[in-house]
Amino acid sequence: MGDFNIRYSIWDPNFLYHSAHSDLLMDITDFMNLELSKLTNQVLTRYLDNQQNLNSVINLIFLRPKSSEYDNHSIYPDWKLISDYASLIINIAIFKEHIQTRKHIIVKNSKEEENFVAELIKAIKELNIENISKVEVIEQIIQSFANDIDRI
C-alpha cells in the first residue's frame, strides 16, 4: 500500500483520464500477481486545503487476488487529523495454526557428520543442471535436491 500520487479513473471517480504512470503501475502490480484492493466505502484519500487542486484518490492498496481474507479495505477520512491523507485500513485475520517441525542434530566432528557431508557432496555432484532454461526447471532441481537431503 502507499501514496502512489497517480490519478486514474479506475480508482478516482472524479478523474476521467489515465496516464502512462497509471498503466505502468498496473503492469507492475499485475507482474507481481497483485490486484487493486476493493473499497468497502468509495471515498477520497487526499483532502487539500487549497482551492486550486481537487481532492483525489492517490493512496491505494494492492493485495493478492481472489483472497477472501484480504480482498477489501476501508478508508476513514475522519481519522486524518492534521494530515491531508485519509487512513486506509485493512483487517487481516490471524488464525492459530500448528506447524509440524522436525529437528535433525548431528554432533560436530562425529562419524555421522562425516557421512552426512559426504552424502551431501554426492547429491550436489549428481544434480542435473545441463538444461536450466526456465524457472520451473530450477524449482524442480531444488525440490529434487531437498528430497535427496531428506533421505540422507
Question: How do the helices and strands line up, and which of them pair or pack?
Answer:
Layout lengths: L1 E2 L16 H12 L3 E2 L1 E2 L19 E2 L1 E2 L8 E5 L10 E3 L21 H15 L9 H17 L1
Parallel strand pairs: 3-6
Antiparallel strand pairs: 1-4, 2-5, 6-7
Can you offer a commentary on this structure?
This protein is an alpha+beta fold and 152 residues long. It has 2 domains: 2-89, 4-Layer Sandwich (Deoxyribonuclease I, Chain A); 111-151. It is built from 3 helices and 7 strands. It has helices spanning 20-31, 111-125, 135-151; strands spanning 2-3, 35-36, 38-39, 59-60, 62-63, 72-76, 87-89. It is elongated, with a radius of gyration of 25 Å. The two termini are 44 Å apart. The mean pLDDT is 78.
